[in-house]
Specification:
By secondary structure, the chain is of the alpha/beta class. The protein is about 45% helix and about 15% strand. The chain has twelve helices and eleven strands. Strands 7-6-8-5-9-11 form a six-stranded mixed β-sheet, with helices on both faces. The chain has a five-stranded mixed β-sheet with strand order 2-1-3-10-4, with helices on both faces. The N and C termini lie far apart (about 45 Å).
Length: about 350
């Protein structure tokens, strides 16, 4: 918190985001958003397009500056900085803020829960967005919407053909729910930042990694080291959120709010289509290069999901909001035949 306060003080001292008298009477509404994605990544490009679309759809009355690569503030502080009004919006994901309330895990990544982005987006359309905003609003934030790429792939220097291969498998993992699921299955997750993955695999510190989609992993150079990958992915599908300071959201008129919602609705299918295309291209190139792509059997996927369900249920006990999100996901999955 000291570090955040120091950063915010520095930003204020340089005049960053100062709302001047001239701006107050301007016809346009300037908004400062930040994402951790770089401008050339799939998600970064989508978010820059989102900003352009908001401007177009609002007849130039809402102008978002999307700061990429966490250029203003640390990724794990962007949500709080937005809630405090230092910046206006956060385009990272709820996985960064599970420490604020365990319920955010259910809005960040439902490990092993959904097989496709469309299934998960269906939950948001079926009341999930409204439920999420009951939580976001408590932190002075409004969730405008989400978008999702294809399921991620695991990368490994050793075979990873099924559930049995997880036993003793030491790999880079993000913190939280994922580590708990893989520990149940006998793996040895090692929590480390995304940027350290390549070095850790190169030095043999870990034998594999949960980093990103097949295409992104390839771009990172992981398959120069790892000759095995799970594909199609099944274990993780991180949710990208676009959230705005609640007071700033309420200050927009209905047409401006709709412009932001419509902009997300436009980029969402584009991201899925592009991510699918990139993964398919990567799969072809990797196979030709001798990398083994391992498609887990229905039985192994079910075994993973059973372990995941136990962890979901445990997380549901950690706060009333987590229980509400868990119950909603389970009800939706059963209603739609995703879960028995």
């Amino acid at each position: 918190m000291k570090k955040l306060t120091k950063t915010l003080t520095a930003l204020a001292a340089t005049g960053f985001l100062t709302f001047t008298t001239a701006q107050a009477f301007a016809e346009t509404v300037p908004l400062q958003f930040q994402t951790h994605h770089n401008a050339s990544s799939l998600q970064g490009k989508a978010l820059l397009r989102f900003a352009d679309l908001v401007k177009e759809y609002s007849d130039n009355t809402v102008q978002i500056e999307m700061h990429t690569s966490s250029s203003v503030i640390n990724s794990n502080e962007a949500f709080e900085a937005s809630s405090m009004g230092i910046i206006d919006g956060d385009a990272t994901g709820a996985g960064y803020i599970t420490g604020k309330n365990p319920a955010f895990q259910f809005y960040g990544d439902i490990m092993g829960g959904y097989s496709t982005p469309e299934q998960l987006l269906g939950w948001y359309d079926d009341g999930g967005l409204e439920l999420a905003n009951e939580l976001y609003n408590k932190f002075n934030m409004h969730l405008v919407g989400v978008f999702i790429a294809t399921p991620e792939s695991l990368s490994s220097t050793t075979p990873l053909a099924g559930i049995e291969d997880l036993k003793g498998w030491k790999f880079r993992s993000p913190p939280g729910m994922e580590s708990e699921i893989f520990q149940k299955l006998g793996a040895g997750p090692v929590v480390m930042p995304f940027g350290e993955v390549f070095t850790a695999m190169s030095t043999g510190t870990v034998s594999g990694a949960d980093a990103s989609t097949l295409a992104v992993n390839k771009k990172l150079g992981l398959y120069d080291i790892a000759k095995y990958a799970t594909y199609p992915g099944f274990h993780s599908m991180p949710i990208e959120h676009i959230a705005i300071n609640l007071e700033k959201w309420n200050a927009l008129d209905e047409s401006q709010q709709k412009a932001m919602e419509d902009a997300i609705a436009t980029i969402t299918p584009e991201v899925i289509a592009e991510s699918t295309k990139l993964d398919q291209e990567a799969a072809k190139e990797l196979t030709e290069a001798g990398v083994t792509l391992e498609d887990w059997s229905a039985e192994d996927r079910l075994a993973f999901r059973k372990a995941a369900q136990e962890v979901w249920a445990d997380w549901a006990t950690r706060s009333p909001e987590a229980k509400a999100a868990y119950d909603s996901h389970i009800a939706y999955m059963k209603k739609n035949g995703i879960l028995d």
